[in-house]
From TrEMBL:
Purpose of the protein: May have a photoreceptor function.
Pfam family, one: FAD_binding_7
Domain Photolyase/cryptochrome alpha/beta intervals: 9-201
Annotated InterPro entries: Cry_DASH, Crypto/Photolyase_FAD-like_sf, Crypto/Photolyase_N_sf, Cryptochr/Photolyase_FAD-bd, Cryptochrome/DNA_photolyase_1, DNA_photolyase_N, Rossmann-like_a/b/a_fold
UniProt-listed GO biological process terms: photoreactive repair
Name of the protein in question: Cryptochrome DASH
Entry annotated with the keyword Flavoprotein: yes
Gene Ontology molecular functions: damaged DNA binding; deoxyribodipyrimidine photo-lyase activity; FAD binding
Keywords tagged on the record: Chromophore, FAD, Flavoprotein
Cofactor note as given: Binds 1 FAD per subunit. Binds 1 5,10-methenyltetrahydrofolate (MTHF) per subunit.
Length: 552
């Protein structure tokens, strides 16, 4: 009989878009149990998987696992082991390329890939600072889980077992499939799975008045009524955990044929490498050197909080949405979305900071206009915008895969869409992607987005309206292009808005007439002035002059 000197009972946490320590329900709960010595496990293993269906992971294929091919016969001969192969090799990924369904764009472009990696890495550093760590892997969540559960128990002087798998719920269709697969894999080993609520939104799921997703109204205005007072609609944030149970000693490695790096630079290089080889990389025109990117921030929780504090201290949260006041430029928009999308910060953290400022509870922002005098137009607008995020997420919950259907939530089968198989339409798509449509305001938005990963809400609306309603092209291609470009890509935010502006989503939407092309593009210029408030245009307009020098 085998004698164990000590049991190792590990809980496995599959980390998703909750890349933060503060206001993190799972970590808060574990930390509480750990501090009272009540945790039902001795070790915690947080695991993050870069999903192969969303981001190209070919840059991590390990040549040492390649199948060697004879130069003459080109037939597989043996598994390569510890030396570089003599003959050309093929390393096959077990996963299909991460490409969009309609147009075949890579699903995640360089701006997001970098920001995402930085955010994961900073989360890993944060976990290490409180006694834990993070195993970062690539592939499919269920494959990694299966491998981990299998390898975990391998020969050891200590009895090692995984006693639970925890994961946070998400509403996207593919994310739901991942969840089901986690249940399947863990179920085969009789390991219980616990699904936690996603708490990065403004209004907590438990406070919504709907019994089922079907009850979510098809109009934002209607939904808005569910939270009469947005200031108090949010729950309290959770404190940063003081410490966590340690990692189990031996952590199963990344399964072949991949090998994962041990540095941030290695991760970024691995994710960017396949992108440079795609045709898309070659067609994006260069960003004019003198133009200032509006979103040049780094990924990770610390940077998100720094940005939020800066917005409050500078008074930008008070002047938000007031185009004629003095805060032109960089701070006209919060630019918090990329962090929100990855869960580096939560909407309720933003709300809580705004409340502290409005009530003068902390010294932050005490020199700024609006300090200590209650809600103002700016802070109220930010809350209203954050509610939009909540709403779009609930629409995804309600409509599932209809989010990606051409006929949209409305099921509008009457519209005749143009498709890329027509050569003329294909050329229009190409020009849209390149930011060379000939409509300056659209081109400015598109080129800013592809070059920097960000453009403002109004600029996005204009580009989406132009593509979906003016050109009448299959709007999903535009949505897929945005998915590639945007640093703040979020499945509900992007696809929900594209439906809306293409006129197949919820809420009746006004038609944003960008005007026909004509001499001097005066109409577009007027439209630009009307739709894009002075805000980011200080940057955008000076960028535009630079761009037009390159473009026209
Ligand atoms: C075609 C199109 C595609 C979009 N794709 C995305 C996307 O992939 N991911 C995404 O998060 N948002 C998306 N949006 C919504 C919006 O454009 C961005 O949230 C906003 O531009 C982000 O900039 P910001 O952080 O400076 O936001 P601000 O304008 O400063 O707003 C503050 C916060 O409110 C939220 N917010 C603001 N405007 C909206 C809005 N219209 N809808 C929902 N939430 C909003 C954001 O979380 C934002 O961080 C899209 C909009 C359009 C028209």
């Amino acid at each position: 009989m085998r004698v164990y000197n000590q049991d190792l009972r590990a809980n496995l946490e599959i980390v998703r878009r909750e890349l933060r320590l503060t206001d993190n329900p799972i970590l808060h709960h574990i930390s509480e149990l750990h501090s009272k010595d009540q945790a039902p496990f001795s070790h915690l293993l947080p695991v993050y998987v870069f999903p192969a269906r969303q981001v190209e992971v070919g840059g991590f294929l390990d040549p040492a696992t390649a199948t060697c091919h004879s130069a003459k016969t080109d037939e597989p001969s043996s598994r390569c082991t510890d030396r570089l192969p003599e003959f050309p090799t093929t390393i096959e990924s077990p996963y299909p390329p991460a490409r969009s369904v309609v147009a075949g764009f890579p699903r995640c472009g360089p701006h997001r890939a970098r920001f995402w990696t930085e955010s994961v890495w900073e989360f890993k550093n944060g976990l290490e600072s409180i006694g834990s760590g993070l195993a970062i892997r690539v592939g499919r969540i269920d494959d990694i889980l299966e491998n981990m559960l299998h390898e975990f128990k391998r020969e050891s002087a200590v009895k090692r077992e995984v006693v639970g798998v925890w994961i946070t719920a998400e509403d996207g269709v593919a994310e739901k499939t991942d969840e089901r697969n986690v249940f399947r894999v863990a179920g085969l080993k009789k390991i219980p799975v616990r699904v936690w609520k996603d708490e990065k939104y403004l209004i907590d799921d438990r406070d919504l008045p709907y019994m089922t997703p079907k009850e979510v109204p098809d109009s934002f205005a209607e939904f808005r009524k569910t939270a009469a007072c947005l200031r108090t609609a949010s729950r309290k944030t959770l404190p940063r955990p003081a410490s966590l149970p340690p990692l189990p000693g031996r952590i199963p490695a990344q399964p072949i044929p991949f090998r994962v790096p041990t540095t941030l630079d290695g991760w970024i290089a691995g994710l960017l490498k396949p992108l440079y080889d795609t045709p898309v990389a070659a067609i994006i025109p260069p960003w004019p050197l003198t133009a200032v990117p509006q979103h040049a921030d780094l990924g990770g929780e610390a940077y998100a909080l720094e940005r939020l504090k800066h917005l409050i201290a500078s008074g930008a949260t008070t002047t938000y949405r007031y185009p004629h006041l003095s805060s032109h430029g960089e701070d006209r928009r919060t630019k918090l979305t990329a962090w929100l999308a990855l869960g580096c910060i939560t909407a309720r953290q933003i709300n809580e900071h705004l409340l502290d400022f409005e009530e003068g509870r902390t010294a932050l922002g005490h020199h700024a206009d609006g300090y200590g005098i209650g809600e103002n137009g700016g802070t109220a607008s930010i809350r209203a915008e954050l509610l939009w995020r909540d709403y779009l997420r609930l629409c995804t919950r309600k409509y599932g895969c209809k989010l990606f259907r051409l006929e949209g939530f409305k099921g509008d089968m009457d519209r005749a869409w143009k498709h890329g198989d027509d050569p003329d339409v294909n050329r229009q798509i190409q020009r849209f992607v390149e930011g060379r449509t000939g409509v300056p305001v659209v081109d400015t938005a598109l080129r800013e987005m592809s070059s920097t990963g960000y453009t403002s809400d109004h600029a996005r609306q204009i580009a989406a309206t132009y593509f979906g309603r003016q050109l009448g092209i299959d709007w999903r291609i535009g949505a897929e292009w945005f998915e590639y470009c945007l640093v703040d890509y979020d499945v509900s935010g992007n696809w929900g808005h594209w439906q809306y502006w293409a006129g197949v989503g919820n809420d009746p939407v006004g038609y944003l007439n960008l005007g026909r092309k004509r001499e001097g593009n005066e109409e577009q210029e007027d439209c630009l002035k009307a739709r894009l408030d002075a805000d980011n245009l200080v940057t955008l307009q000076s960028n535009r002059r630079e761009m037009q020098r390159t473009l026209y």
